Amino acid sequence: MRPIVSLKTDIQETLEETTGCPATCANPAACQGLAHCTAAPGFNSELRTLNTELSPNLLPLSPGCGATCPSAPAIEDDNEEPQSKNFTSTRNACKLCTPLGACLAFRGVEGCIPFLHGSQGCSTYIRRYLISHFREPIDIASSNFHEDSAIFGGSKNFTQGALNVTRQYQPQLIGTATTCLAETIGEDMARLQHELREKHGDTVAPIVHVSTASYRGTHMDGFHSAVRELVGQLAVSGCSAVPVAGSPAAPTGKPVPGTGMVSEPAGEGAGATIVAGGKNDTIALFPGMVSPADLRHLKEIFADFNLPCTLLPDYSETMDGVTWSEYEKLQSGGTPIAAIRALGAAQTSIEFGRTLEAAKTAGTVLQTKFSIPRQLLGLPMGIRETDAFFSALALISGVETPVKYQRERGRLVDSLIDGHKYAFEKRAIVFGEEDLVIGLTALLCEIGVTPVLCTSGGRSKKLAGALRDAVPELPAETLVKEGFDFAEISEAASALKPDFLIGSSKGYSIARRLQVPLIRVGFPIHDRIGGPRVLHLGYRGAQELFDRIINSLLEVKQEKSPIGYSYL
Ligand code: SF4
Prior knowledge:
The protein is 40% helix and 11% strand. It has 20 helices and 17 strands. The chain has helices at residues 4-14, 45-54, 65-68, 98-106, 120-134, 147-152, 155-169, 180-184, 189-200, 219-234, 292-304, 337-341, 362-370, 382-397, 403-423, 434-446, 463-470, 486-496, 508-514, 538-560, and strands spanning 112-117, 141-142, 173-178, 207-210, 255-256, 261-262, 274-275, 279-280, 283-286, 309-311, 348-352, 374-377, 427-431, 450-455, 479-481, 500-503, 518-520.
């Protein structure tokens, strides 16, 4: 028998993403995927047998690495039990590649270009995924390993790549991340950077590196790790290093130790004022991987509280920007590097994420290195989690929540009463990144929906506990599963009979098979336009999600009605 990866690749190549059948199919209209197919004469029986062995409900495999990459199978802990009886390997993972998250975080820094140390295909796959969701160009450089680099190391490629990228893009920063191959051969990135700097000095742009082995982690891990490394490698302590706008104390043109950087004038967002205790009055906000619309909303909220804030990362413009009169190699926008350096003197930090590993976050770095207090909150989704966020801001700022947001909350509560009869006791499957799943579940329970399965491809080992803490009213019988893939979600969905699914567009095949709506949220949204503009956070985000959920349910009711009510 051929290796499983090869067979899976064959399946990937053979199946169409949405039809599940080759062109020879005699009955494409009735197609429910290969495992159910009785109308595909002459179809490769080896693949059919394997498909059935893998899963009775194997989904058409999605493009990108999750299915075909030798490194993608989520064997992260040899001691872990397989997820189900017939578990062989991850089938259509409910997570994405780790460097993908790092690349997105790096594009949230002003003038920063992501640079993958490893195979060229990794950067192609990641660009394809990001462009398809954000509908914006994104350049991701690669050191482009070949066979000899895999054996002797990629030092030469790394040096050449860093020089090329500096010459062509003139970036303020190069954000390097390692792919599976570089991690597997144990590339010593500290040595490579040291050698590069010794030989070429400051002719190469400054570099921040993050280790992102995709066989151990998810895109969220890559995202949070990149943010942590940006803070850990760039932030400096003390007012003398804080580039306060217009301050004579702001250093210019001096080397910043260990970064290959020189200090710069303060950019947008770095205009903090110095307060007692060697701190400035800035709040460091680490929101996690949310949408550009969410980032813009967070900035609006902080401005309304009159709180200076450094949002890291900030890809609200770089990944959802305006039209250009001239092509920009690196889109403008992003957190200024000067503002990241100034984080060492921030007043406090706020991080969103109930499943974050405490020792591995940007907030923890600020806490341990600079004694900056850290506040950990859940993603402000739904009323309770958003209340907690606004209470924290009110406490820090010493002012009440602005009337504008009080009224948004009031309108949300009013609409919940209006729409309750449509949402009550509806059953939902929630999937995606762990913290997003917690936020969505909180919202669903508040509006009367019963989440029957809350699941993620992540394996923090915290999902169930954090979910029960955040949503104590969650029914005891709700299934909470970590490390699930889409084949397992599909199997569970058949038995659970949900009224709708909520998660990324990767759940479309399941929703289509079950003939229920998919509410598209999070990342990726590849089969609709507007993914970057989906607002999840705050009362306003809850309002938008609530309206979409109720309207989708009404649409189903209307479609199924034999007489077609127009007044529901
Ligand atoms: S980094 Fe690993 S998982 Fe990501 S595309 Fe490359 S080989 Fe695949």
